[in-house]
Amino acid sequence: MVEHWSPKPGVAGSSPAGPAINYQQKRVYIMFKKTVEFFKSVKKEMSYVSWPTRADLQEGTTVVIVMSIIVAIFLSLVDMGFSYVIQTLLLKG
After folding, report:
1. Percent of the chain scored above 70 by pLDDT?
2. The total number of structural domains that make up the chain
3. To the nearest 10°, the Cα dihedral for 85, 88, 90, 92?
4. Which residue in 12, 28, 73, 79 is a FRET match for 88, CA 20 to 30 A apart?
């Protein structure tokens, strides 16, 4: 079998079916296109969201603050109780 070399050194053969493709540019284009589609779908989905009213937000915030204070007081009392018990046991022991 005989090898056939191109008449121009350093030139590789290519398929004449289409132009040369810069794959890096194609990947960037595809990623950009996907990003645009993502934001379009986010915008569409955000229109379906039922947003709370200002009164609902104030009520929810009040509940969270009050419950946080109640839990903080409860945990402080439990901590003081355990501290008292441990100190009593260590001083007697």
Report:
1. 76
2. 2
3. -140
4. 73
